[in-house]
Structure formats: C-alpha cells, structure tokens
Request: fold
Amino acid sequence: MSVFWQSVLAVFAAVGFYALLHAAWEWVASRLLCTRGAAELTLYGDGCDPASEQLVRAALRVRRQYLPGLSVTFVEIGGGQGQNVVQHMAARLDFLYLD
Reply:
C-alpha cells in the first residue's frame, strides 16, 4: 500500500475516532451532568430585531439539549418599532418577557 493511501486511511481513522469521542461526550453531558439543578439566563435586546430572535432560539436550544432547568428572561430595551417577534415567542415557548 502506498504512502498516499496509508495517509488517507489514517485521516479517516482519526475523524472516526473524533466522532466517537464527540458522541460519547454529548451523551455524558446531556444525560449525566445536567439533569438536575437550575440556571438563569437574562437576555437584553430589541424584540423587533432578528438578531434577538436568533439569540432567544439559541438559548432555548441550549435549554432543551443541556440545561432543562434553565429559565430564560428577555428584557426589552428597544423602541418597539415594527413587529415584536420575541414577545410572540415568549407566549408560545415558555420564557419570561419583560418590557
């Protein structure tokens, strides 16, 4: 077997080993480490800004995957010009919205 094919095989082996370790760590982190306890996250932003919506979605994804006891609070600091998407999300997705 040439050196080129040995190198390709070694790269595939390294990627597979990394994927296996990553999957094991995700399982340990989601099942064993963060099943109890509570945390609080307070976000400040403009509810009409799409970046605030993405920030809230990321926080809710972290709560769903890693910290089931996480309480998310969004504090409105914007002028309220336009459709306030974050306020509508708060009503549907179980987090606190403060004006």
